[in-house]
Amino acid sequence: MTTPAGQLIGRAAAVLRALSNVPDAGASTSELARTTGLPRPTVHRLLVSLAEEGYVDRDQRSGRWYLGPELYLLGEVAARRYDVTRHARASVHRLAAATGESAFFSARRGEETVCLLREDGDFPIRSFVLYEGARFPLGVVSAGLVVLAMLPDREVDDYLARVDLTGRWGEAHSAAAIRERITLTREQGYAVNPGLVVEGSWGMAAAVFGRTGEPDWALTLTGVESRFRADRRPELGALLLKEAHALSHRVTG
């Protein structure tokens, strides 16, 4: 049972996550209320309290809210232990250079994946499903699928029993459909998203494992469907697995 203090922290975290999805544009109080599903007065009180501590900032002219400087300082401290992007940046660069596609590095955060890095290759047509800061539930997009697939069966079963992804993401994300893709992902070692989020925009991902043996991150390639033909996917998958294995070794070593 969630305590009142736990509920308060959860609501504040929801507001901060909503702001993190619009880092440049900021958001109004009403927009944050709609995004989080919280009452507008509750969101306003949370924002005022967070602003007093420096976790959010408000543009006095526009009234829009932004993430605050205190989060940057906390992030700098946390990065010393958790940030692996300095290792991942080289892998992302090599994948983009070798394939011509857009390459990404995402982190698992609870039951979501969050895109941390992006680098575009030299192929002129882009897919914009993924971008730095983008969040997706586990099981959605190739990064979310590969992370979910590499979890123990009991965690997969628990997640799929609790979460309904069809409301937002369509019947292609039913529990049965996701289970089929999990089976294929485990067989191949990498996940394939055949344009299930945006038609014609394909993605492939391989999991990166942390010290506990959990799939904590993912490397992804995305592009247009014609670049992910059946005869090319094994080559792309092999590149992803090579970089994911090397990155896992660097992180755990």
From TrEMBL:
Pfam families on file: HTH_IclR, IclR_C
Keyword entries, A-Z: DNA-binding, Transcription, Transcription regulation
SUPFAM superfamilies membership: GAF domain-like, Winged helix' DNA-binding domain
Top-rank lineage group of the source organism: Bacteria
A molecular function (GO) term: DNA binding
Positions of the HTH iclR-type domain: 6-69
IclR-ED domain boundaries: 70-253
Gene Ontology BP, a term: negative regulation of DNA-templated transcription
PANTHER family the record matches: HELIX-TURN-HELIX TRANSCRIPTIONAL REGULATOR, ICLR FAMILY, TRANSCRIPTIONAL REGULATORY PROTEIN
Full protein name: DNA-binding transcriptional regulator, IclR family
